[in-house]
Amino acid sequence: MADAKTEIKQSGPNKRAEKALSAAFVRSVTTPGKYTDGNGLILKVDKSGAKRWVQRIVIQGKRTEIGMGGASLVSLAEAREQALENRKLARAGGDPLQAKRTSQALLTFEEASRKVHKIHEPTWRNKKHAAQFLSTLETYTFPRIGKLKVSEVTTADVLAVLQPIWLAKPETARRVRQRIGTVMKWAVAHGWRTDNPAEAISQALPKQTDTQQHRKALPYDKVPEFLEALRTSNAGDATKLALELVIVTASRSGEVRLAQWSEFDLNQGIWTRPALRMKSKKEHRVPLSPRALELLSCFTPNC
Question: pTM for the full model?
Fold first, then answer.
């Protein structure tokens, strides 16, 4: 009986009281009906006993009703807060329904990462690089932030991903950070966020000590000495010629090892390397010096 009286009170035609409901009432009410609160917020109780929130609101001149979730999942305070935000947006000329649909359509970080991976996959040089993009995110990132909406990821979340590996695995950590950043830039481009949290944490991370050992460069004035040592070494003739050709054409070893005779115009002194074998994926023409032409002639049977 108490429920019925409350229902009549809440549903009165002139009832406009703010915060007319209470959390205790929402928990205890069982009588089917509609129970109004402020800003058009209504608690609907079905005959089955299920309770859900709706909001009656005017959006761009049209009266409509917005579903706001079940009362068992959305508290009275949360429903009120959302109702107030919806009303403010509608009064400013916005569309809370469209905003809700946009929010629901947002991808999680994992979903966005997989989409970005698929978009970029054709541009990677080989399958290994493509696989590494996802594998590092699957190992270090998805367990912590994979289920968050891409718009909800914060600098604190990115920091929580990177901090455990930043000093222990510096190269991997840098790659993970770069890949998180790639996903976030894609989200920014789609208007889902305005910042890239992977770029905003530099000061929060300690300085890395890079232990990677790079190959030392041969000083220019030592090249003649090296070439003389190469010619008198026990290396095979093809190896000697190929290595010197690398030097005199400033090429990568793979570009020399995989070269085809069809690429060389010995009359014009030009080596045209196809885009397929170039790191830049662009055709590259290399002028051949007299020594380079001499080396190439030694690869022929008449040398």
Answer: 0.49
